[in-house]
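> agent: user asked for a holo structure of the chain below bound to NAP. Plan: (1) validate sequence alphabet, (2) canonicalize SMILES, (3) run complex prediction with ligand conditioning, (4) return tokens. Step 1... ok. Step 2... ok. Step 3 dispatched.
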Amino acid sequence: MTPQRDVDALASHYAYPDAGALRSNMVASIDGAISLDGRSKPISGESDWFLFGLQRALADVIVVGAGTARAEGYGPGRTRPEFAHLRNAAGQPSAPTLAIVTASGKLDPAANCFTGTARTTVITCRAAPAVHVDPLRAVADVIVSGGETVDLRGAIDVLRERGLRRILTEGGPSLLGALTSHDLIDELVASISPSLIGGDAPRMVVGAPETLRRLELVGVLEDEGTLFIHYRRARGAT
Ligand SMILES: NC(=O)c1ccc[n+]([C@@H]2O[C@H](COP(=O)([O-])OP(=O)(O)OC[C@H]3O[C@@H](n4cnc5c(N)ncnc54)[C@H](OP(=O)(O)O)[C@@H]3O)[C@@H](O)[C@H]2O)c1
């Protein structure tokens, strides 16, 4: 990556395929920890934060698990000023939609994530108690997909039907586990931070059955010692 972080070159490097894709973006230490003291921020750095913003700017929708939205105190979908022209050029609204996946519906309607100009989406299932979900309808678009847990394939189809084809998921590991179980992840973008953490923080994907899933490399960049790796599902992989 160039020191001046050429936004347009990076945007074309990370452009989504024309048909869209579901791309995950996570940061991890060299030893695979995705959090320190329950937060990802200590592992991240300025260059990771920059590319995190770029990934958001390229997306139509950011899909995140409720655990992450709660742990990281998520705000609404936003675009940093240096990336605003990319959305203009792509004919996208000024900010991506934020979509939060929850089975419990336990989200605070007064939380910061429901305060943006772009209306946040809540993706839930029929088992979510109305006492939790009904108040959310006043502050969010609610998609109900599935019974006991969210039918993620069905929910992703609904997002695509709404024209949201460039789908970015920022995890966390439980949501990525569920997406991996249903083979829904097309691309993985990860920042490998120059840090060694130990401990027992989770890996990027938790709870998916152990299966070898082949990936192919799309690109590698480096900035300030952080490696930015980009893989996609291998062609012809089962
Ligand atoms: N390093 C990174 O890049 C990164 C990125 C994201 C998160 N993290 C870290 O990951 C940790 C959070 O982990 P987590 O596993 O709890 O996060 P998570 O995957 O974001 O959240 C799990 C929650 O999401 C909902 N969910 C996930 N899959 C679902 C499904 N198929 N159907 C219905 N609901 C579903 C459930 O919410 P309900 O409980 O509401 O039902 C579930 O409890 C935090 O420490 C955070 O800092 C790190």
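> agent: step 4 complete. Summary for user: The mean pLDDT is 95. The pocket of NAP is lined by residues 26-28, 34-35, 38-40, 64-68, 71-72, 101-104, 106, 149-150, 152, 170-175, 178 (CB under 6 Å).
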